[in-house]
Design a protein that fits this description.
Number of helices: 2
Helix content: 25-40%
Structural class: alpha+beta
Order of helices and strands: HEEEH
Radius of gyration: 15 Å
Distance between the termini: 56 Å
Strand content: 15-25%
């Protein structure tokens, strides 16, 4: 045994292989997470890969949720006027 492992690499979440309604591949969850954190630096952005849910947190009790990272981004832009 050489110690080499041919096992498949782990998947970050369901967005890795999901296709959007327009037929384009959805962005990787880690890329969306980084982009959201960059665009909304005053909010805590959380992704749960097991429940496939996204949250943006700010202060106590202020939460924006989305089923996908793209939906969360749209809701945050609407909420912040951006």
């Amino acid at each position: 045994m050489t110690g080499h492992c041919d096992a498949p690499q782990p998947v970050v979440g369901p967005l890795n292989s999901a296709a959007q309604a327009d037929g384009h591949r959805a962005p990787d969850a880690s890329v969306l997470l980084a982009n959201l954190r960059s665009e909304f630096p005053h909010r805590g952005i959380v992704y749960d890969p097991f429940g496939s849910r996204w949250w943006a947190l700010r202060g106590t009790g202020i939460t924006v949720r989305g089923a996908t990272g793209l939906e969360l981004a749209e809701r945050l832009r609407t909420a912040t006027g951006g």
